[in-house]
């Protein structure tokens, strides 16, 4: 029996109340910021246990602008959790709209196997709209529970990516007698996607006992799980609180890499990113990516691959504005990057914008201290060095520098030697 389930999101709507008058928000940033902090604090409690395939959305009600600022603490702290509403992945765009102001927490498996202890956190802060970029008729239908199998031979464990397992890197081995958890089989039947000691990958099907292989759903190269590709846009000028930047956090596991497609850009993440979009007027729209932790590969496994180290930022420009009409018309086929920037070191202003949104630790899979920027005078001037409180944040950079893969100029920023 083929055990599959439709991907659904359980959306927990927290009706919070904003007390400052929105037209005056820009003139009273302290009240606006206080409301945001209070909202984040409550979301840190109510949304902390969000699980894979569910979403928790806490928003400030925009229709109570006449409430006085003195009522802020009472109204927001007394907000109650409403009855959960079930929606499919596509419907999330109908609920999380640009003129609302709140916190969206959702977790995805993306390219990870069902039942993996790891997941991807997508955290929207402020005025953020997110839309599923995977067409339902083309999406991979995950199995409800993984199947326990035993290896009857030994073989390679290959990285789980959007490419064919035949083209993926070897990341380990599976030995005879070893137990694995399987959740998918390749379209040609030659490979099975498994978790081995919590590490995801593909193994050849002929080294596994075949009793339960027929219940595994087929996964073709390039096929995406629901929400593995998504579109997003941020706006401050139309948000209830324009004085606080709207940001999207995407946090992949530290232990394994994950493949996503964000605004039509393939990415391989073992990192924590902060993203936002910027309106460029008639020339289109820009996506800004700030990498706070680990390595991100833009357009991985292609001639156009760009490696974005932690403490670096990158911009991508688009000709087409991401509008509701574009998404409804099949945005993944219409929204294409026009120009890619080059990785540059993050700025003080960018770190300040991120610091203005104090994300509760309970919402994150792991805490990411911001990089420390060392300059000749301590403030301003060219960046000499980036220092990370957590040495693991830049461990991948050290390896790439030692292999001569990253430019010398980037390695010098980290103080890592090159060949």
Descriptive key words:
mainly beta, 419 residues, 15-stranded mixed beta sheet, 13% helix
Helix content: 10-25%
Low-confidence stretches: 1-30, 61-99
Major sheet summary line: 15 strands, mixed
Task: Report mean pLDDT, rounded to a whole number.
Answer: 77
- What structural category do the secondary elements indicate? mainly beta
Using the CA coordinates, give the radius of gyration.
Answer: 22 Å
Envelope shape: globular
Task: Detail the topology: elements first, then pairings.
Blueprint (H helix, E strand, L loop, with lengths): L7 E10 L11 H18 L8 E7 L10 H6 L7 E4 L3 H4 L5 E8 L11 E7 L1 E5 L14 E4 L4 E4 L11 E5 L4 E8 L4 E6 L2 E6 L13 E2 L9 E6 L12 E5 L6 E5 L2 E15 L5 E14 L7 E3 L3 E7 L5 H5 L8 E4 L3 E2 L2 H8 L16 E3 L10 E3 L7 H8 L5 H7 L5
Parallel strand pairs: 1-2, 10-13, 14-16
Antiparallel strand pairs: 1-3, 2-4, 4-5, 5-15, 6-14, 7-10, 8-9, 10-11, 11-12, 15-17, 16-17, 17-18, 18-19, 18-20, 20-21, 20-22, 23-24
